[in-house]
Specification:
Layout lengths: L2 H103 L31 H36 L4 H4 L2
Length: 182
């Protein structure tokens, strides 16, 4: 081997080593750039998910606020219903008191009453008694009219309830047994 060949082998070895080093450096740069692009994509995806998470959190807070508002509205309506029920009870009490007062004022209303009516104590309170043991005709008529009004009210309430049940069953698609036979 002469020196020319030895120089050529050393030069070729240096070129091959330089090419390998160049390839490794270029490969690392490409890999670093690919990792950088991938990291950017992951950051963008994380940012989008963070926005979605914030939106979901805002939606949850809004739903909770709506639920609290609905609960407050339900409580308000419940209190309104209780107030109306109290007013109705007061009105009913006033009606009962007016009726008791009217019975005390009406000399024909305090005639003989059955002992189980709960008003037997009225006789001992100075209410006039006919003394013949016959029931008072006016009171019987009043009781009959009151019973007729109660029966009419009950039947109208029953008819209304049946109508509502029919309406509800038509909406639900269900039928009642007596409607199937019609």
């Amino acid at each position: 081997m002469d020196t020319g060949q030895l120089v050529l082998i050393i030069v070729l070895a240096v070129v091959v080593i330089a090419a390998v080093i160049f390839a490794v450096v270029v490969g690392r740069r490409k890999k670093a750039e690919a990792n950088h692009r991938r990291a950017e994509e992951l950051r963008e995806k994380a940012q989008e998910e963070a926005i979605d998470a914030h939106q979901a959190k805002a939606d949850a807070a809004q739903a909770e606020a709506n639920a609290l508002q609905a609960e407050a509205e339900a409580n308000r309506l419940r209190m309104d219903a209780e107030r109306h029920a109290e007013k109705a009870d007061e009105a009913h009490g006033r009606v009962e008191e007016h009726l008791r007062h009217a019975e005390k004022l009406d000399p024909n209303a305090a005639a003989a009453r059955p002992a189980d009516s709960g008003r037997a104590s009225d006789r001992g309170n100075g209410a006039p008694d006919r003394g013949n043991g016959a029931p008072d005709r006016v009171e019987d008529v009043n009781r009959t009219h009151a019973a007729d009004r109660a029966d009419a009210s009950d039947s109208s309430n029953l008819a209304e309830g049946e109508r509502l049940t029919r309406d509800r069953s038509r909406r639900d698609g269900s039928t009642r047994e007596d409607e199937r036979n019609l």
